Amino acid sequence: MSSAPKLKSNAELLREIASLPDDQTGEVIDGAMYVMGRPNPKHQAAEGEVFSQLKKGGPGGRGGPWIFLPEVSIRFATDEEVVPDLAGWRRERLAGKFDDNPIRVRPDWVCEILSDSTRVKDLGPKRKLYAKQGVPYLWLIDPNAKVLEAFQLVGSAWQLQGTWSNDDVIKGLDPFPELTVQLAEWWLS
Q: What fold characterizes domain 39-186?
């Protein structure tokens, strides 16, 4: 009789992630390790433009109520660790934690940019983890389809706030009611 292989703990998986080469990053979600390389140009362009819009015209400007960070490691109390493409915190919640790596404060908003290599993970286990950890807002961006889907956590389930595409202009989208989003600026043609 053969026994099932012993599963590794999240702590063991986190040690493996720490030893990855510089051109790779890893995440631990629900007892599984995911390793990925650097994003492609469409992904990077969308990430950069979203970040720029949030910083310049939005709530993340100097002294604003939000802090946004691209591709920062976040470790939850469950020893699950993720690297969202973009994450945001209300400034007062992250105060005094600027030297932490990974950050151990749950984000107030996350944004995942879908790619062929991360789509299944981002739409499945990672989205479930964000809900389980109580992240209030999630944006999913598909730069190939030129689509933004915005979700708000209601109870323990994601509620779709809306879907926008191509060159839509969005105003008043929670949690950034003062922000005007120009989708056309996000896409490489």
A: tt1808, chain A (3.90.1570)
